[in-house]
């Protein structure tokens, strides 16, 4: 008979013991074991059973009920409670903004734009008095800001209107994001150091002022007590530079103008000596002290002692050969009528 193929059993018996041990280990791992909640294994369970609950102690309870707060409420008066609330409100309140003050005066910030748009536009950043104060009437030049016209003006002789915004504080002029001029104002007049630059940032001039008067100016008075101002001749580094002014013995302004590079520039104004701050003549000099010097200035305006226009180049008015215009009814007239002096006499600067 043919012999059947049989599988030997010895190799299977060799792996049987390890498999049996593995099955027993898995069965033991899946068996549930009781877990003890005793957090103090050194104390017997019987002792723990007799200990009181720490959450229900008398010291930590209020009216027999458990409480997590052991602080006692302290009785305070209404005044103390109100003071505590006010203190809490003060701590929560936002800090107030610092007041802008310059030389002891409250100021406000302003700006003005002039010129065209783009690179040619000039921006002026300045400050002015929050409350009006009259500038010194004898200062050579006074400045104020007109919010309606949004422009800084150089005041004429005499007192200013209370609605004017008197410049007071730092000043800066920018053009194409470059600083062109910097300085300070004090009660409407220039103060401390003023600097001017060209478009390349090169310093053109630097002048120091003391409440409107150039620090190096030649100032003369009518009296020995230096109370009656006579003339202010501005000098910078030995050269005429800045605002010029001359007054009469009665304190009225007689001449006002400006020097640059040792020459007269801009508009020079002459005033009637018998009428307070009434203009008589206005003459035009070159705009810059570096322009060619002219032999004689150009007459722009002429007025009577009552303030009526006799000649105005811009408005094409010329009544110089006609009889003097009659002042309006009710207008004050001078008691005397001085003859009109020559132009050369008015332009001569007395030392």
UniProtKB/TrEMBL annotation:
This is Uncharacterized protein. It comes from Hymenobacter coccineus.
């Amino acid at each position: 008979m043919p012999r059947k193929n049989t599988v030997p059993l010895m190799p299977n018996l060799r792996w049987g013991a390890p498999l049996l041990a593995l099955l027993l280990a898995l069965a033991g791992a899946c068996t549930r074991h009781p877990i003890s909640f005793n957090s103090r294994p050194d104390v017997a369970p019987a002792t723990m059973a007799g200990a009181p609950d720490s959450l229900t102690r008398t010291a930590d309870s209020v009216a027999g009920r458990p409480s997590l707060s052991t602080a006692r409420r302290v009785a305070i008066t209404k005044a103390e409670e109100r003071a505590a609330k006010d203190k809490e409100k003060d701590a929560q309140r936002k800090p107030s903004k610092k007041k802008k003050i310059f030389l002891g005066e409250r100021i406000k910030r302003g700006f003005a734009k002039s010129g065209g748009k783009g690179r040619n536009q000039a921006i002026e950043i300045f400050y002015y008095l929050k409350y009006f104060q009259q500038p010194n009437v004898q200062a050579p030049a006074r400045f104020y800001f007109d919010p309606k016209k949004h422009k800084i003006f150089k005041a004429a002789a005499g007192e200013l209107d209370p609605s004017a915004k008197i410049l007071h504080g730092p000043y800066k002029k920018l053009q194409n994001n470059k600083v062109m001029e910097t300085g300070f104002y004090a009660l409407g007049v220039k103060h401390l150091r003023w600097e001017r630059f060209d478009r390349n940032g090169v310093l053109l001039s630097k002048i120091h002022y003391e409440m409107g008067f150039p620090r190096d100016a030649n100032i003369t008075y009518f009296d020995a007590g230096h109370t009656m101002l006579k003339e202010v001749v501005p000098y910078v580094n030995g050269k005429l530079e800045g605002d010029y002014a001359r007054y009469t013995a009665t304190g009225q302004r007689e001449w006002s103008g400006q020097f640059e590079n040792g020459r007269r520039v801009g508009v020079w104004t002459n005033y009637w000596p018998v009428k307070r701050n009434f203009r008589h003549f206005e003459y035009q000099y070159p705009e810059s002290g570096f322009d060619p010097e002219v032999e004689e200035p150009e007459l722009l305006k002429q007025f009577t002692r009552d303030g009526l226009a006799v000649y105005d180049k811009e408005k094409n008015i010329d009544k110089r050969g006609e009889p003097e215009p009659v002042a309006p009814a009710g207008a004050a007239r001078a008691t005397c009528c001085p003859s009109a002096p020559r132009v050369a006499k008015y332009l001569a600067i007395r030392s």
